[in-house]
Amino acid sequence: MPQSWTARLEELGIDLPPVAAPVASYIPASRVGNQVWTSGQLPLVSGELTAAGHVGAEVSSEEAVAAARTAFLNALAAVDSVAGLNSIERIVKITGFVNSASGFTAQPAVVNGASDLAGEIFGDAGEHVRSAVGVAELPKNAPVEVELIVEVSD
Questions:
Q1: Where's the Endoribonuclease L-PSP/chorismate mutase-like domain (predicted)?
Q2: I need a surface site. Which of 45, 72, 76, 104 has the fewest CB within 10 A?
């Protein structure tokens, strides 16, 4: 039975944002067969970052977790734009990049913001493989960047 992910978002009181405009020369998402791959998505709301700086310095872990949730929603919006949200069969992989201050090692906890939201929305279909990577800088000084690979129906 097909799942209504839009109804699930409504149940959770979550509004899917419009697709974030690319900050360089790329497209937000690309469908390849029964998968959609997204470009890295920043925690942008109405074109502005929800937080900026290095996690563990200018940005707290809690702010970074919230930013990862926002970036995940932006990635879902990108998926929706090429395949439709309700075509999602499952989340295959989440990759999270964390703009990390020197000595900050809690990248997995930050990317849990995206992973936990995947579970809240998609239940078992939200279980995924994942990478959580610490980096020295991100575009626009964003604290996190999230990209997705999802399986979609025909």
A1: 7-151
A2: 45
Please say if the pLDDT value at position 1 is more than 70.
no
99 within 8 A of 141, measured Cβ to Cβ: yes
DSSP 18-51: PPPPPSSSS-SEEEETTEEEEPPB--EETTEESS
Give CA–CA dist 126/137, Å, rounded: 28
DSSP 52: -
Mean pLDDT of the chain: 96
Given the candidates 3.30.530.20, 3.30.160.390, 3.30.1330.40, 1.10.260.40, the CATH classification of the domain at 5-16+34-152 is 3.30.1330.40
Q: Is the pTM of this model over 0.70?
A: yes
Q: What's the CA gap between 25 and 9, in Å, rounded? A: 30
Cα separation values, 95 from 10, 61, 70, 146, 154, Å? 25, 18, 14, 6, 24
Structure tokens of 22?
């690319």
- Residue-wise pLDDT tens digits, 70-105: 999 999 999 999 999 999 999 999 999 999 999 999
Strands 129-135 and 88-99: parallel
